[in-house]
Amino acid sequence: MSAFVDTVMLDLSDPDRLREVVAPAADTTNDRIRQLFAAVYALPAAVLHDVVEVDVVASDFQLPLFAPRRLAGTWTQTTPSPVRTDVLYEGADARAPHWLDVAAQLALTVVLEVDTGEIESLQLDDIGDFDTLAEFQEKFRYFDLDAFLAEHDITDVAGLKRAYRYLLGRIQLRQPGTFDPADPAHRRRFELNVAVLIRDTVDVAACLRDARLVREVAARTLPYQRTVGDAEVRTPYAPLLVLPADAVGATGFTPDDLSRFFAGQDVLVVFLTP
Asked: How far apart are CA 206 and CA 219, in angstroms?
């Protein structure tokens, strides 16, 4: 371990300092914590409006992750009678741990606008008469007629009429009221696990490999819920890369260059001068 890694690790052992790194007071739009949240959670039916509170619940240091190891083979016996057995072993490779410099557990209070998908009305009517396949298709707003005909082995309009009696459904969704971000009903509480990797040099390829490897190993070895409330869980840990601020200039890149690149890979990068 280098002096930079040791210094940052001890610095982040202070919960207030760790919170300032992931959610600095100067970051008034909560860009950092939003990026970490998005690395873990997908919101298919909701919009994240704001993060109103960030708490450091716990932190662990130099946490090892062991990549899964899979061995497969065949045991064959020829006497006294032929027997073939397929053998499969799955376990952890204890020889090569991948280290999280800091494993932080955060608790976030966020404001979500959730699309509940409530139905205002549902109406079913007979589809009515039609004389051509085109007339039948025009009765629907979205309909893959070719796929339907192929699936049911129908070749013409006469066969289409004989096959089924068709109904046309109309579903009207309820229009949501005006969203009020100050309404406590829109607040949700989420746990957010962050894997902090501290590197003393700015090696873009090596840092990205480490972040991807840790994220992949964590997803394969650690149990985690796939859905939480209105969110889908993509991975158990959001990767956070800490790099020395005074080493960026020698790379020929700017901090903004590196931040944009790593953000595109779902990795938050922070530059520190301990």
From this structure: 20
